[in-house]
Amino acid sequence: MEEICQFIINNHIYTIYNVNRIQGKENYVGRSHYEDKTIFIEKGKFKDMMLTLKHELMHVWLYENGHTNQNNNETFGYEDVCELVAYSNNSINRIVKEYLRASKKN
Predict the structure, then answer these.
(1) In this structure, are residues 38 and 32 in contact, taking their beta carbons and an 8 Å threshold?
(2) CA nearest 44: which of 22, 29, 59?
(3) Is the pLDDT of residue 106 over 90?
(4) What pLDDT score does 70 carry?
């Protein structure tokens, strides 16, 4: 497990790790743990890792902004999705840039 970087969202510090394998779930290449404030990204192709990172960051962003019903019972309409993307885009892109910068150091 390799710690890559940390970021703050709503005064909570999360840590992103690259791992060889995600434990506990078959076929998962990313995992977010809200209680531990961690994100795990499985090592692989760069493009796949970036998509996985953005996906996991969106889970965290939704959770930290009150969308805690993440068992697929919560639905979003077209306008909701547009709002979510508009509000989350800068935050997620900033964290991805930090992840890429920190990855180059390691």
Answers:
(1) yes
(2) 29
(3) no
(4) 65
Question: What's the pLDDT band for 25 if we cut at 50, 70, 90?
Answer: low
Q: What is the pTM of this model?
A: 0.90
In Å, what is the CA distance from 20 to each residue of 10, 30, 37, 63, 92? Answer: 29, 11, 19, 26, 23
CA distance 37 to 14: 5
Torsions phi, psi for 68 (to 5 deg): -95, -5
Q: How far apart are CA 7 and CA 1, in angstroms?
A: 18
Strand partners, 14: 7
